Amino acid sequence: MASVDRYFASSRNALHRQWSSPKIATRLIIGNAIFWCVTYSQVIIFYNISTGTCWYQSGAYGMFFSIFIAIEIGILPILLLFIFGLLTANNVHKTRQRIEPIGAAHGGQHIQGSTTSKKDTQLHKMLANQILVFIILNMPNPCYLVYRAFTVNTSKSVLRSTSEDFAGNMTYALMDLEFSLTFINFLISSKMFRKEFLQLIRIKILRQHPTLVATVRRDNNKNCQIK
C-alpha cells in the first residue's frame, strides 16, 4: 500500500492526490485485514494436525494452496510493487521535467523547474530501495512453492525431501530478513531519516535540548534586532 500511496501522492492530478490521505489509508488497512481474514478462513476446513504439525491437506487442495500462497505472498506483491514503482518514478520524472511559464517579468520565456520537494524525493528513494530489497528476498519463496506444487505427487528420496525442506525454510528466512532490513534500508537510503533518527536519540535518550539559533530581523529602517 505504501507504493500505491506514493503513486497517488506524486501524481500531478489533484483528484489522484486526494487518494493519498490518512483517512483513506485507515479504511484500506481495515478493509485489507477483513479481506484476508475471510480469505484464509479456508484453513479451518482444509488444514489437518498430524504429529504435532499443522499442515494443509495433500492432493488437489495441496496443489491449489501452494499456488495460491505463491501468488499471494510472492508474485502479486512483487508485481504490484513493480508496477506502482514504475508509475511513481514516471510521475516524479514528469514533475521534474515540467515546464512552467514565468510570465512577462522574464520576457514571456519558460524555464524548467522542479516542484518536487527534497522530502518527497527521499521518500521515493526509500520506497524504491525497499521495493528492490523486497523483490530480491521474496522471489525465492514463490519459486519454491510453485516447484513444490508441481512435485507434490512425485516420489522422493529422504535426501531430496530433506534438501527441499531445508531450501523451503531458507526462503522463509529470507522473507523474515526482508522485514528486519527495513530500518537499515531507510537509514542508508535517506539523509532525512538519519537526521531525524539522530535527533530523536539526542532528545529522547540523551536528553539534549535542541540548540536555539539566533536570527536577525531587519526592519524598514534597516535596524537589526537579534531574537
From TrEMBL:
Signal peptide: none
Membrane topology: Multi-pass membrane protein
Keyword Membrane on entry: yes
SUPFAM superfamilies: Family A G protein-coupled receptor-like
Domain (G-protein coupled receptors family 1 profile) ranges: 1-193
MF GO annotations: G protein-coupled receptor activity; peptide binding
Protein name (record): G-protein coupled receptors family 1 profile domain-containing protein
Entry annotated with the keyword Transmembrane: yes
Primary location class: membrane
Localization of this protein: Cell membrane
Organism: Adineta steineri
Keyword field: Cell membrane, G-protein coupled receptor, Membrane, Receptor, Transducer, Transmembrane, Transmembrane helix
